[in-house]
Specification:
By secondary structure, the protein is mainly alpha-helical. The protein has one helix and two strands; from the N terminus they run ββα.
Length: about 70
């Protein structure tokens, strides 16, 4: 007969390789979501800047394809 073990993920701690700090799975998820949000915002800024550059060149008549 197999004995069931109850696992409490919120109570478990895992090492974070960046600085060796111990974090919970919830903290890991929060960090991942934060990084994804930052990357999305950066990506949106890059796209906006590219559109501005294209419009600038179109207005000057020096249009370049990206």
């Amino acid at each position: 007969m197999t004995e069931k073990k109850e696992i409490h993920l919120d109570k478990q701690m895992f090492p974070l390789s960046i600085d060796g700090k111990m974090v919970t799975p919830h903290e890991c998820v929060t960090m991942i979501e934060t990084v994804r949000t930052m990357r999305l915002e950066t990506s949106n800024e890059i796209t906006t800047n590219q559109k501005k550059r294209v419009k600038f060149h179109e207005d000057r008549g020096t249009s370049k394809s990206l």
